[in-house]
Hints:
By secondary structure, the chain is an alpha/beta fold. The protein has helices spanning 31-39, 53-62, 66-69, 85-91, 119-122, 172-181, 215-229, 279-290, 305-335, 367-370, 394-405, 419-423, 445-451, 455-459, 508-524; strands at 6-12, 41-43, 46-47, 95-100, 159-164, 237-242, 342-348, 374-377, 386-388, 392-393, 433-439, 464-471, 474-479, 487-490. It folds into 2 domains: 6-427, 3-Layer(aba) Sandwich (Alkaline Phosphatase, subunit A), CATH 3.40.720; 444-541, Arylsulfatase, C-terminal domain.
Amino acid sequence: xxxxxxxxxxxxxxxxxxxxxxxxxxxxxxxxxxxxxTEGVSHDRFYVASPVCMPNRASLMTGRMPSVHxxxxxxxxxxxxxxxxxxxLAAGGYATASFGKSHLQPFTDSPPLRKEDHVERLVxxxxxxxxxxxxxxxxxxxxxxxxxxxxxxxxxFQHVEMATSHGDQCGGQYGQWFRETVPNWQELxxxxxxxxxxxxxxxxxxxxxxxxxxxxxxxxxxxxxYLEERKAGxxxxxxxxxxxxxxxxxxPPGKYWDMYDPNDFDVDLPYDAHQNxxxxxxxxxxxxxxxxEPAIPQFAFRASDQxxxxxxxxxxxxxxxxxxxxxxxxxxxxxxxxxxxxxxIFTSDQGFAWGQHGSQEKWMPYDANICAxxxxxxxxxxxxxxVCKEAVNxxxxxxxxxxxxxxxxxWKMHGRDLMGLLTxxxxxxxxxxxxxxxxxxxxxxxxEALKAKDYDxxxxxxLYAWMMMRDGKYKYIRHFKDDVIEELYDLEKDPDELNNLAxxxxxxxxxxxxxxxxxxxxxxxxxxxxxxxPEPKEASR
Length: 541
C-alpha cells in the first residue's frame, strides 16, 4: 500500500465461526470469503463484544463495551452524542458510507428504551448534538418516497443506504425501493405468500422474492454503485457493507432455498447432550417448559434434530448467497483500481447455538454463541494465508482500523491494536480477552439493582448479565446473580464446554486466579459496578 488505506468491512448477522468453508465446515461453500482468508489473516478465537445485535454493533462503532456505551439490550439506542470510530475516520478525511443493516436505533414501532441522565456520564467526550428523536430506523421514517434523502451524518456515515430487519421482512430504504420497483410487491414477501415446500422447521418459509430483489443482492448492488461512482485516486473511503442474513427467518430465495440437503448436516451436539446444564440454562428451560414466558420461535430451546438440520441447510443457503454477492463487490473493487490499497474485513455480529447447552439462541457466554468469523485481508501489508489463535474481541477491530489509518482518537477505547498479530499471527497480547454482557433496560440500572440487592431482577430476562474472560486455554464465566456458581472450562480438552471445572476442587487455585484477573480487567474497562457484584456461590465439590 502506497498511501492511507481504504476499507470495506463486510458484516453478516448471526453467523457462527465454523460456518465458513475456510474454517472447516464440511458442507458449506464460501469460495469468495475463503479467498480473503487465503490472502489475509483469519482469527479462530474471535469473540464478539456482546451476543446481542444492537449492543455488539454499538461496541463496534464506539470501541467500548456495552457496560460503558449504554446500549445493552435490543430496543435501546446508541446516543447520538457518542463519538464513533467512523466519526474519527470522517474527521480524518475519509469518505464514509453504510449499506444494509445498521441497527443502532430500534427498527420497530416501539419507542426506544432510554435513560436520559445516563448519557453524559458514560460519554464525557460527547461533542455532537442530540436530536432526542431516535426514529431514523423506525418503519414510519420510510413511508415517504425513496428520493427523500436519509438524514446524514448518521453516527459518522456521510452516505447511508439502509435495510432494516431480516430476510424478506426487510424495510428501510430497501423497503422503499422494493415497493417502488416491484409492481406486485405485496404478493412477494411475508409468510402468508410463501411458496409450497416440505420444511417443518419454525420460521422456515419459501419466499417468492426473486434473487435479484432480495435484500442481500440489494446491499451488494448499493455498495457496487458506490465503488463505481467514486473517482479513482480520491480520498480514501470506509464502506460498511452489512448483510441482514443469515439471521432467521430461514428463507433464502430462488436456487439458494434447496442448494443444500438437510440430511447432509449433522446434529453434532444434540440438546440432550447436556445432562447437567448450568443454572442459567436450567432457569431458561424451566421458563420455556412452564410457559412463564411466551414461546417465542427464535428461542426454540427444544427444536427437534430434524428442525436443526433444516435450519442449518437454509442458513447455509443464505451464507452462500452472501458469499456470491461479496464476490461481486470485490470484483467491482478490483475494477475500480483500488483493490491493492484497500483493507478488507469480514466478520459477523454474533454466533448462534444449535443445541449447545440445550438451547437454540445467542444470549449466553458459550463459544457457539459468541465466537464469530474474523478475517483481515490487506495486500502487501499483512502475512497472507495464516491463522491467528490469540483470543481477540470485537472492539479490537475498531482500534486496528484507526491504527492502519494512522489516526489516534482523543478518548479512551477498550480495543487493542491487532496490527502486531496481523503481521505476526503467532504473537501474544498482554491482556486477557474480557467480555462484559449487562443486559438491562438502560444505563446504570445494573448498579442500582446490585446496590439494592434486587436479585429478583437478575432472575428475570430483563437482566441477563455476566462477564466472560478467555485467558489462554481457559474460559472463566461469572454470572451476576447471587444464586449462580461460576463456570470454568479448559477449551483445549473440552471445546464443547460440557465439564464445568469450577466445581472441581483440583481447580480451586486456577478459579481464584482467573476470578481476580476478570475483576481487574472489568475495572480497566470502566465497569463502575464491579465492586457491587454478589459474591460467587460456593460450588459443591
